[in-house]
Design a protein that fits this description.
about 290 residues, alpha/beta, Metallo-beta-lactamase, Chain A, 6-stranded mixed sheet, 4-stranded mixed sheet, 12 strands, globular, binds zinc ion
């Protein structure tokens, strides 16, 4: 198994350190941290897809206007999952499975770029996304990004399996036991982390269960004010989200829990994980072939 950490929708929001806690000027950085996992027997597996090629080309048609204005994505097709994979020598048809933390527009935009992949998603998330009942659900879920939904594989959150004390869905259809889903609802109705046992031990891609490393990796949790406001704005259930953050903090202080936990949008975590895994995040070079 080989794991690549890829930023598939970098954003440059106004607000500097109010957004990321580190940038000195007016412009902050947020990552869209996705994974491409080369497995021995199950082909190429993605965790989330970030923005897709069509989102980059026509953002005003496909992305929610308020969110896109706040986040200011870098609309560069070279930063999509599809182009990252091409640079790694893979065709989009090599992608057999996509495990989704949730179906928000900034995570599901690339689904349509990988038509041959089964899409694994928690059932409550699929239900909320299809119904788009609330104003927030109509903003966050964009059906034009999904492609054929007959390939969705849905999982109940009523599970008896456990992973480091958390409920877990351990048997994902067609995937090895080293990849499982860990329900962490709150940000959205069926939000889940994705746990992977790789060559360097366990890691948990926590998706948008938190937005800043300070929310789970510090004893006194905090979050830059701008990002905290965006997190509250997008939360399906803030109280549940905070409760799951507290559980993750508890997990990280366990002396026996030797594992890496990271979220989607913290740029420091993204760089740290990419370097630790041995795939330093380089500026993408232009490739001759079109997508
Ligand atoms: Zn997100």
């Amino acid at each position: 198994m080989r794991i690549h950490h890829l930023d598939c929708g970098p954003a440059r929001p106004l607000g500097g350190a109010l957004m990321d806690g580190i940038s000195p000027g007016a412009i902050g950085r947020l990552s869209c941290h996705c994974l491409a996992i080369e497995t021995d027997r199950h082909g190429l597996v993605l965790v989330d897809t970030g923005l897709g090629l069509r989102d980059m080309a026509r953002p005003w048609l496909r992305l929610p206007a308020v969110n896109a204005a706040l986040l200011r994505f870098r609309l560069d097709p070279d930063r999509t999952m599809l182009r990252h994979l091409r640079r790694l020598g893979h065709s989009p048809h090599d992608v057999r499975h996509i495990v989704m933390t949730h179906l928000d527009f900034d995570h599901a935009g690339g689904l349509i770029d990988f038509p041959n992949a089964a899409v694994h998603v928690m059932a409550p998330e699929a239900k909320a996304a299809r119904a788009r009942r609330s104003w927030l659900d109509r903003i966050r879920y964009r059906p034009a990004q999904w492609g054929d939904t007959a390939r969705w594989r849905l999982y109940s959150d009523r599970t008896t399996e456990r992973w480091f004390g958390f409920d877990a869905v351990a048997e994902l259809e067609g995937l090895p036991p080293e990849i499982l889903m860990v329900p962490l609802p709150g940000h959205s109705a069926g939000h889940a982390g994705v746990a992977i046992e790789g060559p360097r031990g366990w890691m948990l891609h926590a998706g948008d269960a938190y937005f800043s490393r300070r929310e789970v990796h510090e004893r006194l949790p905090g979050c830059p004010a701008g990002t905290a406001a965006y997190e509250r704005f997008m939360a399906w259930d803030s109280r549940l989200a905070r409760a799951n953050q507290a559980r993750l903090r508890g997990l990280l202080v366990e002396p026996d829990a030797s594992l890496a936990v990271f979220c989607t949008h913290d740029p420091v975590e993204y760089v740290a994980m990419a370097v630790w895994q041995g795939n330093a995040p380089a500026e993408p070079r232009r490739v001759a072939s079109a997508a």
